[in-house]
Amino acid sequence: MRDKFTRGFIAGITGGLVANIASLLLGFFGLTSLRFADWTAIIILGQTPPFSIGEILFALAANVGFTGILGIVFIYLVPLIKSTNLLFKGWIFSTFIWFFIYSVASLFKVEGTMPIPLTTALANVVTTSIYGLVLAQVSEKEFVKNIASEQAGNVFRLIKPAMKPLKKNDDDPE
C-alpha cells in the first residue's frame, strides 16, 4: 500500500488492538488498576472508574482510533529519522507518548489517574512497549513491501535500449 496515511493508521490500529488486549488481560489478572480503556474513559467521559460495559467498549473504540492516529504520526516521522532499527524507534516513540500522557495527567491532577500504584505503572509501560513494537513491526513490513515494489518498478525504467532505433525520415534521400 503506497498511501502512508492509511499504512500508518493500519499499523497504529494493529498495535492498539494488541496492546489493549494485553492491557485487558493484565487488568483481568489484577496486575493493573487502570487499563488503557480506563485512561481513555476518564478523559472522554470525565468520570472515574468503575465504568459500565458500554462505556468501556466506547473507550476501547476511541483508544484504538487514537492509536491509529499515533500510527499516522509515526509513519510520517520514520523517513525523518531513517527506517533502520525500527523496532527500537517504535518502542521509544510509544514510551514517549506514555510518559507524555502520564505527565499531563499528573500536572493537571486528572481525577482517577493519580496516584498510580507501581504495578499499574509497570503494566502500562509493558502494554505501551507492546504497542510500539507491534506498530514498528507492521510498519517495517509495509516499508519492505513498498521498497521492493518500487525497486521492481525502477528496474524497468533503468533498462534502456543499446542504440536508438533507426528510423527513416521523410527528409532522408533514398
Describe the structure using short key phrases:
174 residues, mainly alpha, 5 helices, 73% helix, 0% strand, elongated
Shape: elongated
**Which percent range fits the helix content?**
over 70%
The radius of gyration over CA amounts to 24 Å
Low-confidence stretches: none
Tell how many strands the DSSP assignment holds.
0
Biggest sheet descriptor: none
Strand proportion, as a percent range, falls in: under 5%
What series of H and E elements makes up the topology? HHHHH
Transmembrane segments: 9-36, 56-78, 90-108, 114-136
Keywords: Membrane, Transmembrane, Transmembrane helix
Description:
The protein is an all-alpha fold and 174 residues long. It has one domain. The chain contains five helices and no strands. The longest helix has 41 residues. It is elongated. The termini are far apart.
